[in-house]
């Protein structure tokens, strides 16, 4: 049985788009656009894969995004927060503590 082909990426960003967080598709689309504008696409060493999720279970502080491979969770997202996360985390490799509320232990 053939396996699917997946293009390589460094970071997987999964944003909630559930009802309790305001069905924030515009913010998800902003993130997708920003990633492309910054060149974080297939072929770039910092390529980012963006996916939407339903509720991630912490709606009171949403919108929420979880980022792998670090397992970092971000809250209270808006366009300014996305700009910083793209620049500092996705491009610079440094978690943005101001919006991070959960991460790997240790
Ligand atoms: S709808 Fe966003 S975490 Fe629940």
Tell me what the structure shows.
Helix 1 crosses helix 2 (79-91). The mean pLDDT is 94. This protein has a 5-stranded mixed β-sheet with strand order 2-1-3-4-5, with helices on one face. The protein is of the alpha+beta class and 106 residues long. It contains 2 helices and 5 strands; from the N terminus they run E-H-E-E-E-H-E. A hairpin with a 3-residue loop joins strand 3 (65-68) and strand 4 (72-74). It has a single domain (11-102), classed as Glutaredoxin, CATH 3.40.30.10. The protein has helices spanning 25-37, 79-91; strands at 11-16, 48-53, 65-68, 72-74, 100-102. It binds FE2/S2 (inorganic) cluster. Residues 16, 18, 20-21, 55-59, 62-64 line the site of FE2/S2 (inorganic) cluster.
């Amino acid at each position: 049985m053939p396996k699917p082909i997946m293009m390589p990426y460094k970071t997987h960003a999964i944003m909630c788009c559930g009802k309790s967080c305001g069905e924030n598709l515009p913010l998800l689309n902003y993130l997708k656009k920003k990633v492309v504008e910054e060149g974080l696409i297939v072929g770039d060493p910092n390529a980012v894969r963006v996916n939407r999720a339903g509720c991630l279970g912490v709606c009171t502080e949403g919108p929420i995004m979880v980022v792998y491979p670090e397992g970092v969770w971000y809250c209270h997202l808006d366009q300014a927060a996305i700009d910083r996360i793209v620049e500092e985390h996705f491009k610079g490799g440094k978690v943005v503590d101001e919006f991070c509320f959960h991460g790997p232990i240790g």
